[in-house]
Amino acid sequence: MFATKGFSQTTVRDIADAAGILSGSLYHHFRSKEAMLTELLSGFLDGLNARFTEIVEAGVDPQADLDGLITESFRTIHNERLAVALYQNEASFLATVEGFEFVAERSRDNEALWIRVIEAGQAAGVFQASLDPALTYRFIRDGVWSTVSWYRPGGRHTPETLAEQYLKLLHAGILA
Amino acid sequence: MFATKGFSQTTVRDIADAAGILSGSLYHHFRSKEAMLTELLSGFLDGLNARFTEIVEAGVDPQADLDGLITESFRTIHNERLAVALYQNEASFLATVEGFEFVAERSRDNEALWIRVIEAGQAAGVFQASLDPALTYRFIRDGVWSTVSWYRPGGRHTPETLAEQYLKLLHAGILA
Amino acid sequence: MFATKGFSQTTVRDIADAAGILSGSLYHHFRSKEAMLTELLSGFLDGLNARFTEIVEAGVDPQADLDGLITESFRTIHNERLAVALYQNEASFLATVEGFEFVAERSRDNEALWIRVIEAGQAAGVFQASLDPALTYRFIRDGVWSTVSWYRPGGRHTPETLAEQYLKLLHAGILA
Amino acid sequence: MFATKGFSQTTVRDIADAAGILSGSLYHHFRSKEAMLTELLSGFLDGLNARFTEIVEAGVDPQADLDGLITESFRTIHNERLAVALYQNEASFLATVEGFEFVAERSRDNEALWIRVIEAGQAAGVFQASLDPALTYRFIRDGVWSTVSWYRPGGRHTPETLAEQYLKLLHAGILA
DNA sequence: AATGAATGAGAGTTCATTCAT
DNA sequence: GATGAATGAACTCTCATTCAT
């Protein structure tokens, strides 16, 4: 519900109704509405960071690593669509909220990891040296992760077709 | 304020305080909080669509058109940053809200316009034929417009450097 | 906890936490929160009335009786400080609560007992006849029992020094 | 209502009902329930301190000053009975509450003022030198101010008869 | 004797909106 | 064009209490 309607548009009563209990009863399980958000986000971010780290640590060459990160991103959009949407929608709002520092921290970790891969590729001569690594990371990140706003499982695309199309565009560019 | 804090996180009192009047007095100028949003968004979308249409109508060849649309997008992010951020943040929420159908309509118009340009490029043999036009449009759109979430005027980048870097990546791809 | 934080400011959970069990488990030992209060207060009031009665029944002359009642009051403040504080804080609130009629009854018993001593002293010519007995009782009672709000065992005073100072003031007055 | 039922036992809805408006409307006049308490208490304490200070500054001799302070206290109990009761009931609870430091401060000011008068009387030889001034102050204060818990205007006593009886007891003591 | 999940009522507070002045 | 008082609904959260286990 947080992903669909937004955190602050979702009421505790909405959640309790969906759970089939009274709103007060939720407080037996969570200390606050924010605590529910924390549990959702930290679980998601922990898993994502672990998978990203594993890809890079087991990596062979920068291009395979970057392709792996991108493919894993599309898979995550498929497997944890609502968590991704939640993160996309609320991350900027949470940046300033006390108790949610871990969100910005995890984002910074991710950014550093991706940029290292891009720089390694440039150093190895496999990625164009004239591209700004930080900028390139952001263009890729946004192009990939924004997919969550329109992707629907069971629709025209699968994580694999998305990754294939995106990588084709990214690798060789749009020009014939 | 809608762009910065979000529409529903911004109270009518916040706006009135910033305007130096009392909240009730705002209703002399706007029929509702939503009417303020409508005015902001429709002005922004009208201007944007007009500029996009002009680019394509005055267009020479598909590549120049696409580059023009992208460059104009970065300029708009610079010139109307808050309106763009507002649109990015609230568009999906507004899709279902009565009275805001015009937002989705304008978005569809834009999408059709961009996709026509891409398809024209493929037909002319200048864009890769194996790319899905709709998918390519979304990857580009998201990569470009998400810039608004981190771009700050006066920072390391200008609309021109952003466009130059993005077009370099888009034209030739990341591979050396 | 009732004495320190007040009855209605103390939650059943507070009490259960302090007891190292869960709040629901308290209801195995007490039928309600009020039942805990009853147990505390009735035990305290029973003991106090018994000691007061004993003093007066074993009494020799009115002055010794009054001094004895006052000294016993200071001792009770020392020995059962929290119970006294609880009684002082909650008595007026409880006056109207169903099931707590015993509190007002015990207070009335006490009042009658003290006033009898004062009137006996006036009849015997040992206490000033021009003093209103009921009023004098209340002035004494409040001066003595309010001590509980600031008295701390182990501090500058003992029940004995308090009684000595108070009796000096009461016996001869403030004027030199 | 705060005086009668206690601050935390009084609900915002109780107050609004008594005022003939809805509970939310109260927040147009007060920022919070605590703000109502602040307004009541600070007004009361400011006035009381001003009157006490005036009595001592205009004073001739210590006995007249002390009598004046006591008489003024009984008058205040008569004139501002509910404010006095509120202060008596809530002062100790408020001692620890953020934003209510002014209550403890005013109390300390009062205490210092009364004790100075008592010490001046002892120095002048008009008050018994063997009495502990701080202790004597507290016995008097509690005897006098606790009156509020049972005094009812229009009843058997007036502020003047109360003061007369109390001063008779205080001046010469209970012994004949 | 204790757990832990749930209840249901009610708490303080927020806020878009209305409207007589 | 603005005020300021009020509305009414909804919000998050608290808490004494119940009860099957």
Structure, explained:
The structure is a homotetramer of 176-residue chains. With 176 residues, the first copy, chain A, is mostly helical. Chain A has a single domain (32-172), classed as Tetracycline Repressor, domain 2 (Orthogonal Bundle). Helix content of chain A is 68%, strand content 0%. The first copy, chain A, has eight helices and no strands. The first copy, chain A, has helices at 2-5, 12-19, 33-57, 62-79, 81-94, 101-123, 133-145, 159-172. The longest helix of chain A is centred in the first third of the chain and has 25 residues, at 33-57. Chain A is elongated. The model of chain A has no long low-confidence stretch (mean pLDDT 95). Chains C and D meet through helix 7 and helix 8 of C and helix 8 and helix 9 of D. Chain A binds a DNA duplex (21 and 21 nucleotides) through loops. Chains A, B, C, D: It holds the Pfam family TetR_N. Chains A, B, C, D: This is Transcriptional regulator TetR family protein. Chains A, B, C, D: Residues 1-48 form the HTH tetR-type domain. Chains A, B, C, D: Keywords: DNA-binding, Repressor, Transcription, Transcription regulation. Chains A, B, C, D: Residues 11-30 bind DNA.
Mean pLDDT of chain A: 95
CATH homologous superfamily classification of chain A: Tetracycline Repressor, domain 2
Write down the CATH topology of chain A: Tetracycline Repressor, domain 2
Q: Show unreliable segments of chain A.
A: none
Give the biggest sheet of chain A: none
**Oligomer status:** homotetramer
Through-space gap between termini of chain A: 43 Å
Given the structure, what is the number of helices of chain A? 8
Number of separate structural domains of chain A = 1
Give me the strand/helix succession of chain A: HHHHHHHH
Q: What is the count of β-strands of chain A? A: 0
What is the CATH architecture annotation of chain A? Orthogonal Bundle
Largest interface summary: A-B, 40 and 40 residues
Principal-axes geometry of chain A comes out as elongated
Backbone structural class of chain A: mainly alpha
Q: Quickly name the level 1 CATH class of chain A.
A: Mainly Alpha
Helix content of chain A: 55-70%
Q: Note the beta-strand portion of chain A.
A: under 5%
Radius of gyration of chain A: 18 Å
Protein name (chains A, B, C, D): Transcriptional regulator TetR family protein
Keywords (chains A, B, C, D): DNA-binding, Repressor, Transcription, Transcription regulation
DNA-binding region (chains A, B, C, D): 11-30
Pfam family, one (chains A, B, C, D): TetR_N
